[in-house]
Write a structure and sequence with these properties.
There is one protein chain. The protein contains 1 helix and 11 strands. The chain is mainly β.
């Protein structure tokens, strides 16, 4: 499956953005990861075994919300109260290879990746 991420840009601290990731076909669990300059890729938010199960990184919990539109094979990441530390390239991922928590939150277990969309939080 091919993934197309969009919605990144420049945002002021405290601002909001909505990222989108459209899949070319039906996929299993999808989610968002990010990589800040000079840092390793990290988990942000993912769906678990069902649409009602969502996992969030501690750093974004309460500020970011993951959602999906199954009719469009698309997931979203609503980012609110943005902080400079949120500056990163955001990647969507799909097709996790195992269905336990450890796999959902670890990017090495995903087979499909989008090209990334850059979010810059700066005044």
């Amino acid at each position: 499956v091919q993934l197309q991420a969009s919605g990144g840009g420049l945002v002021l601290p405290g601002g909001s953005l909505r990222l989108s990731c459209a899949a070319s076909g039906r996929t299993s669990s999808m989610g968002w990861f990010r990589q800040a300059p000079g840092k390793e890729r990290e988990f942000v938010a993912v769906f678990g075994r069902s649409d009602s199960t969502k996992y969030y990184a501690r750093s974004v919990r309460g500020r970011f919300t993951i959602s999906r539109d199954n009719a469009k094979n698309t997931i979203y990441l609503q980012t609110n109260s943005q902080e400079p530390e949120d500056t990163a390239v955001y990647y969507c991922a799909a097709d996790v290879r195992c269905t336990i928590y450890t796999c959902f939150v670890d990017g090495q277990y995903y087979d499909s990746w989008g090209q990334g969309t850059l979010v810059t939080v700066s005044s």
